[in-house]
Amino acid sequence: MKKILLSAFLVLMSAAPVRAVETEAPVLFLNGQVRQGEMLFGYVTPGSEITLNGVPVTTRSDGWFVIGIGRNDTGDLTLKATKDGREISRTYSISPRKWRVQHVDGLPQNTVTPTPEEEIRIASDIALAKEARQKEVDMPLPLCFSMPAQGRISSVYGSQRILNGVPKTPHNALDIANKEGTLISAPADGIVLLVHEDMFLSGKTVLIGHGQNVVTSYIHLSKIAVKEGQKIKKGHEIGRIGMTGRATGPHLHWVVSWKDKRVDPLVFLKNSEKFCPVMVKKKTSSASSLPQKKRGKK
Ligand SMILES: [Zn+2]
């Protein structure tokens, strides 16, 4: 009960939970709700080392970091920050979410129940994407992301999908439907980790790394406009919406991941938007990105 109250308090007070005093334990907070599918932005006193359930988490030099929570994750998350021998630890319980059930019929049967040869191709595509997501991306994570394409949201994150009557893995992405050829642009600065012209399920595919284990994927494209290893700025053309691979109509299947966890792109964008003004403020004042009112007294 105490822990729940503490978590609730931290969520409510996430903007200003702790005073920063040099000689005390590092400041550490998460901004947002600790629930399935979230990618939360957090802050720790710069120079601290942090772990999530014992696994190191990289931070920006100014102290901002993100952590992702998978669709089916349950239990507790313990964040620990250490600096100059002082430690602070916070434990949060992951709240569950309810997911939609979505029926998709009329797909070519071989893409729903692939042949053994197709299974091999699918497995090789998955391995390529997994390897690309694990590449080191040496850049500070941009905090201000935006939608990569305009269009109608035709499928949200998390839905349980039943394809031609067969229950499949949940939809761990956001589908943005629009005419074939609609522009797809980078939601933030990044480095192109993978370009593939013909994946069995994903068709023309692009993966972009943004730093700190955040990767965005662009699937079913009709045209790819970037090359592997290319550094791109926010707004740069990635390619065009299409329906290559397994798709019933032209749309962008947009995946946002942190490490091996797919998170909810819409929630991620919402959390990211909250941070944009802070960063804009930082640029104009060149002060610490932690807003003035959040700093502790000396
Ligand atoms: Zn999709």
Can you tell me about this structure?
This protein is α+β, with helices and mostly antiparallel strands. It has two domains: 2-96, Immunoglobulin-like (Sandwich); 101-259, Glucose Permease (Domain IIA). 18% of the residues lie in helices and 35% in strands. The strands form five sheets. Strands 9, 12, 14, 15, 16, 18, 20 and 21 form an eight-stranded antiparallel sheet that branches. A four-stranded antiparallel sheet has the order 4-3-6-7. The chain has a three-stranded antiparallel sheet with strand order 1-2-5, covered by helices on one side. The chain is globular, with a radius of gyration of 20 Å. Residues 1-22 and 283-298 have low confidence and may be disordered. Bound molecules: zinc ion. Residues 155, 171, 173, 175, 253 line the site of zinc ion.
